Amino acid sequence: MAGRIAQADVEEVKARTNIADIIGERVALKPAGVGSMKGLCPFHDERSPSFNVRPQAGFYHCFGCGESGDVYSFLRKMDHLSFQEAVERLAGRIGYTLHYEDGGATPDKGGRTRLYAANAAAAEFFRAQLTTAEAEIGRRFLGERGFDAGAAAHFGVGYAPQSWDALITALSAQGFTADELSAAGLVSAGQRGPYDRFRGRLVWPIRDVTGQTIGFGARRLREDDKGPKYLNTPETAIYHKAQVLYGLDLAKRDIARGEPRRVVVVEGYTDVMACHLAGITTAVATCGTAFGAEHITVLRRVMGDESAAGEVVFTFDPDAAGQKAALRAFAEAKRFNAQTYVAVAPDGLDPCDLRIRKGDGAVRALMDTKVPMVEFVLDQRIAGFDLSSVEGRVGALRAAAPVVAELRDRLLQPEYTRVLARRLGLDPDDVRREVARAGNAPARRDESQRTQAPAEGGDAAAPAVTLASLRPDRDTLLERDALMGFLQYGHRVDADLLRRASTVPFRNPALEAVRAVIAEHLDQVSRPGWASAAVETIREPYRALGGQLLAAEFPARDEDGAVASATSLARALLSRDLDAQKAELLGAVQRVPADSDEGRALRVRLRDLDLERHRLRSEQ
Asked: How far apart (Å, rounded) are the C-alpha atoms in residues 350 and 354?
């Protein structure tokens, strides 16, 4: 087994890695002031962004939930990696050879890293098999659906041989053990031992948002295959179907760049391929499960879902299963800030079949048929009622009113109340009363009460000190802004000035705790990541405050302006300290005889203070 990674390598890998690139693969980041970026927090669900990233400091902090750290802690929390696995992943990303304390460069031999490696090796094996004679049936399947070799290569489509152990044999030769292949979901256990999970099928690699292969979806090709039409990787340590969207690794860049930002949610792998090849490059699909809350959380972060300007378009089959899927999606869609729509092709074709029959233009035109999801669901709710009868109209109203009552946007709710009244031919006041009644149903009240009920257990822990809890007096504001400047731009402030200003005691106890730590780390200011390392050593309950000071937006036009401001704040601290010392000495002079030795010593100190104040002003 490998020993600990050399500390010099740990620091070098972090210095060579842009934390914004790593976080930006999962979160849509936007500029938020000088040297800062902001997005929706990946650690908790939020409506507006409070997650700040400072690439220069190699640090992130969420002002909503308090999570903070460096690029290693981000990967460890997001992907449940060990520290060593996080370092090794980043080292592999930049092509850096790590060295271990027991000597030499030693590859990792266990844990999640091996699961990623096994899936990557399997993906290569399947891709190579698609060119074999046995895979003719798979190539024909793709060709009949309008996908050529280039399309297959773009999406990494492969073929799993009918053999019971072809993959096992190939990956065992590469050093993977049976336990690793089982943990990766690539093999199944039988009475005679493990065997390949995917056999005689067309295989699509399922990748996470960073592009790493974490599992597979396999399509049945032969009539004598008695298995399910689609067979996916089972739940593993790295594959959780409720959190995975097929095609998101390819779609994320265009999603983040779009105006408006649009995501198209389709139902299958071939639908994703058809959409992308037709020019709708923001299409994604779930993997063997219904679209749910965790999928929304992933999409909102990639979209930067801060306002109603974005669009999420669902394509559903017009059959009963598709309608049921639409209703399930509607139940969760209110989690989006973006507007949600449904697009159904005129002939009820899915995007893949639509492309086969009518071409790429018809797939693109599908987006022009989209209708707001609320209208689609309302139509589904009232479709089964006879609107020519009073009883049918009343029944339809009772079925549809809860849909309108659940609308989050209070400007939309009265509009859809009128829409529903027109569709049912009922008095708008009657419809309005029914919507209000549906919104005040006992079940909803009970749910609200459960949500608001206090947690059981002991007393809550004392809250951490944060920027919001600081009193806004002049001294506190000066100390707060100075610490922000020192943590964010201390490496560019004159070293002697920074040293003198950082050793001046603060008047706010919380800010003093942060200042003391900065003073202890002055010898590391020139090192990349020094500030985030310093923040980690701040004692509780002040550590969150340190993280916020490092991540908060520093008021300046550009980086040079920020350095100038930090320098000015350092001088202001020194000036305040000199003023305080002078006031104290002037008081002492009044209390002792002027011709005494103590009096003369005090006047000498006053003169020295004035000289120091003059030097400080001349430095500006």
From this structure: 6
